[in-house]
């Protein structure tokens, strides 16, 4: 049986829109909600509410960080310009709906000039080799800047251990 905590964690780190096949052959946002809902065996409205709750949590974290004058000044001084497209690439640390890039996105929306776009291409479980395999998707995002955070899964063994 899946607990509320398990469902929250699943939604926190699972971004079907970044799955290579679905990114290369895009589908409507409602299909992503339905897919997540099917995997969790809950209504799509519950998935949407869960994702919104995580977005709000990232917003609260950003607001807390921006209460510090030094942090606010750093956000306001980011080197991005009007029309730039900043794309984050990485594993679950980047894909995390309340992680560093989502908090940065919320902080920029609050304190930054807001003239540039931020796009998260993080995908849980990705290795450096996985990111290289889906380089076409990074290129298709047409970034002017790429924020890269990789390597965690390169140094880790996945799956069951033999014996």
Automatic annotation (TrEMBL):
Name this polypeptide is given: SGNH hydrolase-type esterase domain-containing protein
Q: Where is the SGNH hydrolase-type esterase domain?
A: 88-160
* Source organism superkingdom: Bacteria
Coiled coil segments of this chain: none
Q: Which Gene3D superfamilies match?
A: SGNH hydrolase (3.40.50.1110)
Q: Which InterPro entries match?
A: SGNH_hydro (IPR013830), SGNH_hydro_sf (IPR036514)
């Amino acid at each position: 049986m899946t607990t509320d905590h398990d469902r929250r964690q699943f939604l926190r780190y699972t971004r079907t829109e970044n799955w290579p096949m679905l990114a290369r052959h895009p589908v409507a946002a409602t299909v992503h909600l339905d897919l997540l809902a099917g995997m969790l065996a809950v209504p799509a409205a519950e998935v949407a509410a869960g994702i919104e709750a995580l977005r709000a949590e990232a917003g609260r974290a950003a607001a807390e960080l921006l209460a510090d004058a030094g942090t606010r000044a750093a956000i306001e001084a980011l080197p991005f310009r009007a029309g730039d497209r900043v794309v984050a690439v990485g594993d679950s640390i980047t894909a995390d709906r309340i992680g560093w890039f989502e908090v940065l996105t919320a902080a920029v929306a609050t304190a930054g000039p807001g003239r540039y776009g931020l796009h998260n291409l993080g995908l849980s479980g990705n290795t450096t080799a996985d990111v290289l395999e889906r380089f076409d998707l990074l290129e298709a995002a047409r970034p002017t800047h790429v924020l890269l955070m990789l390597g965690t899964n390169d140094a880790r063994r996945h799956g069951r251990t033999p014996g």
